[in-house]
Amino acid sequence: MYIAADDIPDDKKKKQEEDDINVANELGVAIKENLESHYEITKEPSALSTDLLNMKIPTTLEKLLMDDIDEIKWISKKPVNDKICMRDYSKQCPSMWEPITETQCSAPK
């Protein structure tokens, strides 16, 4: 097995990840405190309070963003025909298909 220097996480990257986790945790605490104080003042829960109070803030925001970026890169490499539907929905059946009834079509043979 071959291990490159890039495979070994450096301390700086690890520190940055820990800092990101701390920021996410602080953000979660601030949101929770804000929602709780809103309830104490108004005696009515905000629309978001039940959802946000029970939701855990993601600790790996960077990973979530990178996953989205990877998915976008993958989608951008797909041919256009795989991303859009070429069917003309103003017609009952796709081209080369035969209408059987008002709602059914027969595939070409």
From TrEMBL:
Residues 85-109 form the CPW-WPC domain. Pfam families: CPW_WPC (PF09717). This is Pb-fam-5 protein. The lineage of its organism: Eukaryota, Sar, Alveolata, Apicomplexa, Aconoidasida.
